[in-house]
Design a protein that fits this description.
- The protein has 2 helices and 2 strands, in the order H-E-E-H.
- It has about 50 residues and is an alpha+beta fold.
- Helix content is about 25%, strand content about 35%.
- The chain is elongated, with a radius of gyration of 15 Å.
- The protein has a domain of about 35 residues.
């Protein structure tokens, strides 16, 4: 059953989204925090801008 679910994610609209990770500096502590989102492939450059 798991193989069937994974195979269905690789077809059609599942490939039009990407998981993006951006490193952002925290204004409170000064350390870096990772911000993760799943965005459409057309919006990837807007996420990093």
């Amino acid at each position: 059953m798991a193989k069937k679910a994974v195979a269905s994610l690789q077809k059609g609209e599942g490939r039009s989204f990407s998981k993006v990770i951006k490193m952002v500096k925290s204004s409170v502590t000064g350390s870096y925090v990772f911000q993760e989102e799943i965005v459409h492939n057309d919006k990837v450059k807007e996420f990093f801008a």
